[in-house]
Amino acid sequence: MYRYSRLPVSNLSSTSQRSWQLSSPFRSFSATTEIRGRLLTAIRDDHHELGSCYSHIIDNKNADERTRYRNRFVWELARHSVAEEIIVYPAIQEYLKDGQDRSSKDREQHQTIKEQLYRLQGLSADDPDFEPTFRALYSDLQQHVKEEEEHDIPQLEAKLDEVTITQLSKSFERTKHLVPTRSHPLSPQAPPFETVAALLSAPIDKVADIFRKFPKADGPIQ
Ligand SMILES: [Fe+2]
Ligand SMILES: [Fe+2]
Questions:
Q1: Which residues have a beta carbon within 5 Å of ligand 2, which is an ion?
Q2: For the residues 99-123, what does the mean pLDDT come to?
Q3: What's the gap in Å between 199 CA and the centre of ligand 1?
Q4: Cα dist. 83→34, 63, 98, 179, 197 in Å?
């Protein structure tokens, strides 16, 4: 069973603000229709991927298959959440009129989902609690996803110029790729998070600092 260490939402807000200020300054202009939607597409693709994993687990009663897809779901959701917290929510905070409240609400929803992720990862796939826990997690996730896709991200993109949207989208993808895709032992190419619990319970500014300094062929995150 993983130990759970709660992250105070207030700490997340302040540290993320600092991470954001270390990044390139983003300008606020209108983007063309072609570019607008690029960030939303990247985020929506991840949400669809999580939905596919969920359906596969619910439709498949084989414990081994469920375990493998559960592990994939947990890591996909963990790295998606980290990339949003480091790259996207600070931009919401910066550019939307009620951005402070919205980014705080998004982080609170992430926190609830993280607690459920820890529980899910500690359960065997043939545990009677496995499916109810997974369904409850996914129900909360769906509500959060709906708010991101219908409100937060479209409204953010509407405030930004195309250079900024492109930069945000690239940074979002790059941050995700710096997070290991599963809980394998560390390799010299992976940041120091051996388990999803270690990743999600680390202070978000520490995670951002590690990724920023991490050597990568195409450079640190911006
Ligand atoms: Fe999110
Ligand atoms: Fe999301």
A1: 148
A2: 92
A3: 16
A4: 23, 30, 21, 9, 16
